[in-house]
């Protein structure tokens, strides 16, 4: 049982951050791993079987990051199109590598039924510094809306709009970590000067569905697929996960558009956000990556089995 209780609060600072405080925060951030070695090399290797296209770039001096999307070849508008996104929060490792693992191991098979687009690492600065925010102290996964303050969000949205892509399914790969309570919410409280509630971090996998378009059977199929790989997060004593009511085993709901979540910008009919818990004593990094892959394949298998494609 975790010691953290839902009633605990992070007290706000006297005022929210201005440019000076954001700069002070930025100066404390350091590079801890390599986007080039961990991600770009794997994307380059996919070019043999898939189309690899640069859709944008980020410049956070002295660092420069090209942004890539991997798509199946011979895009056919008569097929349903699928978007897989990872690394919207760069520090959520299995989201990035789960997206890459899916397209590498399963992309060609599912390309028989679907057009597939994979944006595996939307926030590479966040990946390298192991950060939820971008270098401007902005959360990309609260920024998927018109006139977004996040280039990570706006450049992906512009790519989709430019190519007039209509996705039937969008699966966004995320993690919930212990640092959400120990680092992120305290930082959020300091940045915005708004008191934040700390909720228990759930031990296990769960999904965040769109409250306006829940698609219960689709979510259930993903949970059943992931169960074969890792455990599903139980609800707490109040029937909730991270403070939200559970609609079925391992599923909660958010208003994705209202919150500016990546999962809400495509208007996909079948959508979900995965949440893996990498700090569990019952899993390894490989288990977490495999759980992300199982979530994607479980969702796509559901569409095929039910003749939705």
UniProtKB/TrEMBL annotation:
Pfam families: AstE_AspA_cat (PF24827). GO terms for molecular function: hydrolase activity, acting on ester bonds; metallocarboxypeptidase activity; zinc ion binding. Transmembrane segments: none annotated. Residues 31-295 form the Peptidase M14 domain. Its cofactor is Zn(2+). GO terms for biological process: proteolysis. Keywords: Carboxypeptidase, Hydrolase, Metal-binding, Protease, Zinc. SUPFAM superfamilies: Zn-dependent exopeptidases (SSF53187). Belongs to the peptidase M14 family. InterPro entries: AstE_AspA_cat, Peptidase_M14. This is Zn-dependent enzyme, member of deacylase/carboxypeptidase family protein. It comes from the Bacteria.
């Amino acid at each position: 049982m975790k010691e953290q209780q839902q009633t605990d609060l992070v007290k706000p600072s006297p005022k929210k951050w201005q440019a000076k405080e954001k700069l002070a925060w930025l100066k404390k951030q350091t590079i801890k791993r390599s986007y080039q070695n961990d991600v770009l090399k794997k994307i380059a290797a996919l070019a043999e079987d898939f189309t690899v296209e640069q859709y944008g770039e980020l410049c956070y001096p002295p660092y420069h990051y090209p942004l890539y999307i991997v798509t199946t070849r011979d895009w056919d508008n008569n097929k349903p199109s699928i978007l897989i996104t990872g690394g919207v929060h760069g520090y959520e490792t299995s989201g990035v590598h789960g997206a890459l693992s899916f397209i590498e191991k399963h992309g060609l098979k599912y390309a028989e039924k679907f057009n597939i687009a994979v944006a595996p690492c939307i926030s590479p600065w966040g990946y390298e510094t192991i950060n939820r925010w971008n270098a401007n102290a902005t959360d990309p996964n609260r920024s998927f809306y018109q006139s977004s303050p996040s280039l990570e969000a706006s450049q992906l949205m512009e790519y989709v709009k430019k190519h007039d892509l209509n996705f039937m399914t969008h699966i966004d790969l995320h993690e919930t970590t212990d640092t959400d309570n120990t680092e992120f919410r305290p930082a959020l409280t300091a940045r915005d000067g708004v008191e934040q509630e700390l909720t228990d971090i759930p031990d296990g996998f769960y999904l965040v569905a769109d409250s306006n378009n829940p698609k219960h059977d689709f979510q259930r199929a993903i949970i059943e697929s992931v169960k074969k790989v890792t455990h599903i997060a139980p609800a707490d004593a109040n029937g909730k996960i991270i403070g939200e009511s559970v609609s079925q085993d391992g599923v909660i709901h958010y208003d994705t558009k209202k919150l500016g979540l990546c999962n809400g910008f495509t208007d996909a009919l079948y959508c979900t956000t995965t949440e893996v818990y990498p700090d569990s004593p019952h899993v390894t990094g490989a288990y977490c990556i495999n759980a992300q892959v199982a979530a994607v394949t479980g969702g796509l298998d559901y569409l095929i089995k039910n003749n939705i494609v």
